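Dear Dr. H.,

I hope your travels went smoothly. While you were away I took the liberty of generating a structure for the chain from your last submission, since the lab meeting agenda had it listed for discussion. I wanted you to have the full record in hand beforehand rather than looking at slides cold. The sequence, exactly as received, is reproduced here:
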Amino acid sequence: MKFNKEMLLLYAVTDRAWVGRQTLYEQIEDALKGGATIVQLREKNLDEQAFIEEAIKIKELCHRYQVPLIINDNIEVALKCGADGVHLGIEDVPVAMVRERVGKDFIIGATAKTVEQAKNAEAAGADYLGVGAVFPSPTKKNAIRITKEQLKEICESVAIPAVAIGGISLENMQEIKGGGMDGIALVSAIFAAEDIQQVTTKLKVEALRIVKSKSMRTALTIAGSDSSGGAGIQADIKTMTMNGVYAMSAITALTAQNTTGVIGIMESTSEFLAQQIDAVFKDICPDAVKIGMVSSVGLIKVIADRLKAYKADNIVVDPVMVSTSGARLIDEDAIETLKTELLPIATVITPNIPEAEVLAQMKIHSKEDMLAAAKKISDSYGCAVLCKGGHSINDANDLLYAENSHQWFEGKRIHNPNTHGTGCTLSSAIASNLAKGYELAEAVQRAKEYISGALADMLDLGQGSGPMNHAFDLNSYFGDSAEE
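The corresponding predicted structure, in token form, is as follows:
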């Protein structure tokens, strides 16, 4: 089961001390019915064989509810029962040693009580942290407590997600609101309850309110401004808003343009762009970042430097080189800096055919060429590549190449001459869905559905290649709200 930070929202940790009229298996099933998003099986007194037999049954139960099973402390049991991961305490086997043994797909959690421990765990290969104890714990009476401020400092010191743990209940959960965690771990609050299913449901609702106290997921667009509103940050902000995330911006350049073309460009200074990015990250840290038009070496270096400093996640780079109307939007020497500075930190890049030809240094005439180019780009820069097939190749089908495998996304060509801002819109929609926790392939699929709807609405404005309607009815395409 592939790890996703959304799994951490309601983290149920078992405790056999509360087994009474129900078996532990029955208690866990009630917690899963109530909405637990991950289960950690903690057994201190069972022998290894009994632990393995129990874990196999509980793993099957968890998987029936599509929830991962984590084994506390014991890597041998975790591997033998086929669990999804293991949680390691500070004095357990080192994270780096376990990671080397189990590979990249096995989930590893690590306990952290200080910033130093958190950073060390992240560097060693941990997928998430358990941070606490935030309150006195009935299960660990000698646990060292940390303050809400320390919790926040630890969570913000690393890029990997974290759960708060230790004595948390429905009554005191509000006290850690704003602590920066991605999930809340509970023991007795769940398993000591008379009605586990009902209590777990209440706890999940409260956890959602507290963990997502930002009210919604957030995304930052770093791009140029389009005075006509069809592309650039204007399109990005519309797209992010319609896809259910809070949009923020850092402007790389002002443009004077309309549907007939670009009339003038006035670039931001490197210093001012850095100030914009700093202002955003220091207050409302984005869950995803979309990078669009960046025309010079200095700006590209500033963006890469700031995103590395803040350990930004879910970075989508739209390597804008030429506008829809044909105007060149990037300096020649900036292309090389884009390759060396931005592409290696990207989660995914979204070149169209002409841009992919520049990046791969080859001509693209067919599906096979698209695949060869995407692989070459991905291998060169270590990022996923969505090669867009909208330039008379393979109709409107796009190719996602990631982690040495590829997937085609079929699209029906919509006969709408108004395509201004399609690249900006697609990349922003992908970033929005990554911010909400979707896997890359699902984020791409939802983004394609969104842009198809915006084009199919047949908005017709301006005398040239006009904009699409970003504000069309999303429900007609997704059948649900954009925010899950």
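Two observations you may find useful: DSSP finds 17 helices and 17 strands in the chain. The first helix runs from residue 24 to 34.

With kind regards,
E. W.
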